[in-house]
Amino acid sequence: MVTLFYCLRRPSSMSFKEFSAHWNGPHAALVKRLAPKLGVVRYIQHHALAPEAARVMQGMRGLEDPFDGVAEICFESMEALQKGNLDPLVADAQAELAGDEAKFIDFSRSSILFTEAKAVIA
To answer: What's the predicted TM-score (pTM) here?
Structure first.
């Protein structure tokens, strides 16, 4: 299993409530519809909580502002991930996703990370 973590920050002009509502509403429905074409086998949204605690901990460690949420998107394999994200046959689906993401994500302050899990405590 390969997991893509999409670490999201909202535009400064958007409230967290607006960001969360769009992400968990119209965008979630779009991902559900496109998942089979993109090879997505699992999609979990992690919406930020406890902003005060996050600010304290980031201050203690000298970290950047916290993310507003993290999307966890899983694929069966690296090949499935590549097909779902890089294959020209899915370019229309990727363009549709990116167009919707532009409505609630500040791309310049967000990030993507591809991972393979290594259990330490399970």
So the answer is: 0.88
- What does the domain layout of the chain look like in residue ranges? 2-115
Task: Return the bridge partners of 74, or none.
Answer: 3, 42
Q: Is domain 2-115 classified as CATH 3.30.70.100?
A: yes
Sheet holding 111-115, edge to edge: 42-47, 69-75, 2-8, 111-115
Q: Is residue 46 classed as helix, strand or coil in its secondary structure? A: strand
Closest CA to 45 of 13, 74, 66, 76: 74
| Cross-strand pairs, 7 | 70, 111
| Token representation of residue 111 | 């990030």
pLDDT for 122 beyond 80: yes
CA dist list (Å): 14 to 9, 75, 105: 10, 31, 9
d(CA 24, CA 77): 26
Structure tokens at 13: 């002009």
61-86 residue pLDDT tens: 988 888 999 999 999 999 999 999 88
In the chain, what is the straight-line distance between the N-terminal and C-terminal CA atoms, in Å? 16
